[in-house]
Amino acid sequence: METISLVECPRDAMQGMHDFVPTSDKINYLNSLLQCNFDVLDFGSFVSPKAIPQMRDTQEVLDGLDLDGIQTKLLAIIANIKGAQIALQNTQISILGFPLSISETFQQRNTNATISEAWNTVAEISELCHKRNKELLVYLSMGFGNPYGDAWDADIVSEFSEKLVNQFGVKTIALSDTIGCATPELVSSLFNSILKEQPTVTFGAHLHVLPQNANAIIESAFDAGCRRFDGAIKGFGGCPMAKDDLTGNMPTEKLLEWFLNRNISTNVKQVAFEKAFELSSTIFKR
Asked: For a FRET experiment, which of 104, 228, 234, 238 has its CA 20 to 30 Å from that of 8?
């Protein structure tokens, strides 16, 4: 049976929420997610509390997680060297995620740096991760286009990917549809081409979608060869730096249903997931 790698992203789901989620509630929810046996848990971010107030308690949340017997790898998002240094002080964290944008406008909005400056940051973080034996995951933000009129085409995505792999040894790249603009045809085309160009690299799909096109997007990515998918329970969240009317994350339950219906293993424990799904209503209230 073929197996899929699933990344659960409560950090992405929570970060744009107006009301602060109490630290104890975050810890309780994340501990329930850790019981589900996801491959990776995107649990928090070491970024400026002014930029993302919701994540100001990431260290406290991390300290409260029960990791005994847990196989799930912890992923922390960082946007600069300072964030990387803080994250690397925590041995529990296996993966550092850095958002590198195809769009100049979005790179500055998201990390307060130009793309050129972001490349320098990638170089430094890559070296730090190598020294600490940590994995560097790079998100190619605005990987399927942008609303700002900045240049985008598949060749630019290819060039960014090639540089990440050949110059910095990055082994995992997440193609990120930050605003939900990708069509099934574009997802299929981009994954087909990029996987052939970089066959030794794990390319993930971090896709913000509308509920009505989620299944078509999953199918397009899978059929094109993608085997790593990011999701968030109930599809909450999105990027607060992208635009005001947030497109939701790919709903994890839709991913699980799609793969289950095709007899494709995700290794997620169903009973634990149902408990976490129920608990999510205490975090995400509308």
From this structure: 104
pLDDT at residue 274 is higher than 60: yes
Domain containing 196: what range?
5-282
Number of domains, the chain = 1
User: What stretches of 133-265 show up as alpha helix (H) in DSSP?
Assistant: 154-168, 184-197, 214-223, 252-261
Q: What's the sign of the alpha-carbon dihedral 62, 64, 278, 6?
A: positive
Give me the pLDDT at residue 178, please.
81
DSSP secondary structure letters along 166-187: HHH---EEEEEETTS---HHHH
Place of tokens 């066959």: 199
Provide the whole-model pTM: 0.95
Q: How far apart are CA 171 and CA 13, in angstroms?
A: 25
In the chain, the largest separation of any two C-alpha atoms, in whole Å, equals: 48
CATH code for position 192? 3.20.20.70
Encoded amino acid at 31, one letter: N
Residue count of the chain, please give it.
286
Q: Which residue has the higher pLDDT, 204 or 240?
A: 204
Tokens at 253, concatenated: 């339950």
Dihedral sign computed on CA atoms, order 253, 255, 256, 261: positive
